């Protein structure tokens, strides 16, 4: 820390890589903030970016983004005379008059904040462990894509693109199973969830969805509700039923993912609002922001 008159400014700036941040704001203006209770202090970054919500839609994370300080993008440090509630203080258009701000330092131009967003948790919850879906056993879950749809198996809810969810195909009633215990109706050594023709009748499972287009307004993709001979076994698991309908559409499924954004400010100069004092940092680690949501990953 440093200041322009050589005096020591009494502040802890007790924020680091383990500080958990919060996000609020509207379509354009956002606030990312953190609060400490002892001492009572906060750091916040007010910025304009309509696209940022702490998540991304792609499989791989985007490149880090940089937002430069200016009159619309400000880093603000404050101390207070009493505890504050983050939502009530930062997530309203006009902050309350209490508690009283004792110190305030605001960023000047010249520096910027870097956002780096990754996924920390994700799984398709299909009952097949992610480690088991690393088929080439190289430790990289992203290079295993059985059906070639662009979605890695460990986050692919339908690993063979037959429109029957993997979570269904791993618990089906079957007299034949793989050594791992997964149903293998046709006994070909491939579990149903990795077999595009589950009953080996010459018609792929996706094409045994005979009523997919019966609804004039909606396409219903569900091979499990077709049972031509009424024996209780759906056509895609019944070798006696092999009628087909060309269905080259794919069901879309949601995957639960947790995103983490780390914020680091660089080349920071923060000016006091009540004096000529300033604080400079070459690097100021603000902390991390976690956001969880369900995503629909599109088949390529």
Using the alpha-carbon principal axes, give the shape: elongated
Uncertain segments of ≥5 residues (pLDDT<50)?
1-10
Q: Give the distance, in angstroms, between the N- and C-terminal Cα atoms.
A: 51 Å
Summarize the main sheet.
9 strands, antiparallel
By DSSP, the count of extended strands is 9
**Tally of DSSP helical segments:** 2
Overall pLDDT, averaged? 91
Radius of gyration: 27 Å
Topology as H/E string? EEEEEHEEHEE
Oligomer type: single chain
Helix content: under 10%
Structural class computed from helices and strand pairing: mainly beta
Question: What percentage of amino acids are in beta strands?
Answer: 25-35%
What this model shows, in words?
There is one protein chain. With 300 residues, the chain is mainly beta. Helices cover 3% and strands 29% of the residues. It has 2 helices and 9 strands, in the order βββββαββαββ. Strands 1, 2, 3, 4, 5, 6, 7, 8 and 9 form a 9-stranded antiparallel beta sheet that branches. The two termini are 51 Å apart.
Outline the secondary-structure elements.
Elements: E1 22-25, E2 29-36, E3 41-48, E4 65-68, E5 74-80, H1 86-90, E6 101-107, E7 112-123, H2 166-169, E8 254-272, E9 278-296
Antiparallel strand pairs: 1-2, 2-3, 3-5, 4-7, 5-6, 6-8, 7-8, 8-9
Task: Give a short overview.
The chain has helices spanning 86-90, 166-169; strands spanning 22-25, 29-36, 41-48, 65-68, 74-80, 101-107, 112-123, 254-272, 278-296.
Notable characteristics:
9 strands, single chain, 2 helices, nine-stranded antiparallel sheet, mainly beta, 300 residues
């Amino acid at each position: 820390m440093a200041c322009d008159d050589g005096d020591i400014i009494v502040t802890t700036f007790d924020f680091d890589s383990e500080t958990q941040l919060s996000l609020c704001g509207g379509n354009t203006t956002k606030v990312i903030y953190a609060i400490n209770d002892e001492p009572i202090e906060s750091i916040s970054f007010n910025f304009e970016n309509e696209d940022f919500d702490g998540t991304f839609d792609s499989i791989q994370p985007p490149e880090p983004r940089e937002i430069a300080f200016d009159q619309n993008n400000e880093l603000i440090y404050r101390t207070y005379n009493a505890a504050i509630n983050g939502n009530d203080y930062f997530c309203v258009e006009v902050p309350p008059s209490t508690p009283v701000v004792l110190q305030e330092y605001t960023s000047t131009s010249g520096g910027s904040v870097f956002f780096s967003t990754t996924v920390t948790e994700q799984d398709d919850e299909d009952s097949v462990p992610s480690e088991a879906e690393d088929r080439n056993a190289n430790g990289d879950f992203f290079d295993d894509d059985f059906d070639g749809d662009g979605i890695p198996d460990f986050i692919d809810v339908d690993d063979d693109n037959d429109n029957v969810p993997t979570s269904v195909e791993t618990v089906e009633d079957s007299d034949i199973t793989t050594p791992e215990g997964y149903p293998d109706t046709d006994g070909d050594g491939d579990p149903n969830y990795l077999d595009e023709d589950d009953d080996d009748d010459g018609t792929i499972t996706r094409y045994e969805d005979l009523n997919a287009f019966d609804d004039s307004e909606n396409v219903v993709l569900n091979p499990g509700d077709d049972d031509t001979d009424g024996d209780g076994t759906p056509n895609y698991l019944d070798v006696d039923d092999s009628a087909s309908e060309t269905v080259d559409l794919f069901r879309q499924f949601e995957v639960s993912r947790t995103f983490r954004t780390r914020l680091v400010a660089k080349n920071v100069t923060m000016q006091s609002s009540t004096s000529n004092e300033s604080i400079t940092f070459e690097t100021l680690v603000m902390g991390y922001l976690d956001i969880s949501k369900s995503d629909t990953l599109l088949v390529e």
